[in-house]
Structures are given as structure tokens and as C-alpha cells.
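Journal club side-thread
Mid-discussion, someone asked how the predicted structure for our own chain would compare to the paper's figures. Pasting it here so we can look after the session.
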Amino acid sequence: MTIETLKKSYPKLFTKLPEDVSALRYLLVIDVNYDDDDSDEFDAIDPEDYNFLLYTTDMLQEAVGEPTMIELVKRLSEHKDIEEFYLSDIDLYGIQTDLDEEGIAHMVFGSLEEIVA
């Protein structure tokens, strides 16, 4: 998924973002949540409960504002494609979903597009 594709799919959202955004990772980081056997740290976002970690970057948060981020959290926590949702912070979530990374990105950006509309 390219930034150009995202700009075409989510035009209202992208009017709020800086024009020099060149990659998805500058807005949203989607990582597979895995069990790190080498770490002694307790992980509140357990890989058995949440198969993906989502991080919304400072750039995205600043562009849309705190009220939009709060609404995004509400929508994601109730989204039909998310079986389990864990809010670690306003910018970090654990989710359990059958979607792949591209599907998750579309879900997040689609929700944001509706909120900023």
C-alpha cells in the first residue's frame, strides 16, 4: 500500500497531514505481536490475547488532534473486525483480529476519514 493510494482513498484525512509524508510508517506502525522469550519484562499486551500492536505516530496525532484520537480509540474498541482491544496509551493499542496489516491500516484510516469528515 503506497502513500499515493492512501491519499486517494482518504482525501479528507490527508488534507490534515503534512504534504511530505512519504511512507505509512510515519503515520501508523503495525507490528505482529510475538512472545519474546529472551525478555524478562512483563508484557501487558500479551501475544496470546492480541496478535497485533498498533502505534499511531506523533505526526498523525498532532495532525488530527486529541479529540479525534479519543474518538478513534472508541471506534476501534467497538469495531466489528476487532475481537479484543487493549488501550495501553492514546497512541498504543493491542488488537486481536483476523485482518492482515493492510486491512488494519484501511480500518484505522477509514475510521479517521469518517471522524474528520
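Post-session note: The longest strand covers residues 82-89.
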